[in-house]
Model the fold of this input.
Amino acid sequence: MTTRSRWYRKVLVAATLVAAWLTATAFAAGAITWTIGADGVTGDTAIAGTGFQAVDLVNGLDAPQEFDVFHLHDGVSMADFQKGYDAVSQTFSGAVVAAFTKDTADVIGGGVVAPSGTQRVYVDLKPGNYVVNAQEAGSDTPTPHLLIVTVSDGPSATAPAADLELHLADFEFDFPDTLPAGPQLWHVQNTGAQTHHAVLFKLLPGKTQDDLMAWLAAGDAGGPPPAEDGGSVAVVSADQSYYASMDLTPGTYVAVCFMPDATTDQPHAMKGMVQTFTVL
Done:
C-alpha cells in the first residue's frame, strides 16, 4: 500500500535498497511462492494450510517491488475489494485507510523486494480469500498487479522463533536501544488501533534524528538526504502480525511511520511514531 504523501514518495525515490543480500539467500523448499514478473503476480493460489506459513516473495523485475498481502473479510467480493483498494490508492487519507481495513480487508504483511531478489516472510493464514498485490516501490503512478488466493483448512504451521518481538502501537515503536547486525527474523505485531508500518533510515556519519526529520519536512527543498535507506517493515493492520527476514548492517537507524492518522491525516511520525536505535 504505497502512500501518496509527499514524505513517503520522497523516501522511496531517495532510497537505495539494502536488502540485496536476500537475492542470493538460499531458502528451504516447501514455502508458498508469489512472484512478480512480466505477466503480473503468479504463484500458489489454492493453499490448504493455516497458521504462520512460510512465503517467498520473489521479484523477477528490474525495479524494487512492494508486496502486500490482504485477507478479505467474510462476504467481501473481489469487486468490493477493488473498489476499496482504488479509493485508498487515489486518496490516501487516514479515514479512507481506516474504512478500508474496517469494512474490506486486513493487511497481514508483505515486503519491499530488491530487483531479482527474494524475501522470506511468514504470514498468518486462516481459511478465506486473499489478494496478493505487487507494484513498483517508489512510483508516483504504480500499477497494481493482483493475485487472488484461497486458503482452506489444512495443517497448521507453528510460528517460527523470532530474534526480535517488535510492536507497532498508537503511536510508538518498541525497538531495543541496540540490535546485533546480521540476518534476523522479526515478529512484527500491530498492537494499535490504526494501520502502521516502519521505514528504516540508516543515518550518515554525524547526522541525527532531528536532521532526518527536518529533511523530510522540507520536501523538495531539503537538499541531500542525511540518511540512506535501511529497509522497511511492511504495512500491517490493527491486531495483525507477521514475521520478516531482516539483515541490518552496523550503524544508527531511525524508524519512521508515515501512515496517515485516521482523524487528522497527519503522518504518524508527527504524532511521535519515530525511534532511533543502534545496530552493532
User: Anything to note?
Assistant: The helical segments are 6-14, 78-90, 94-103, 209-218.
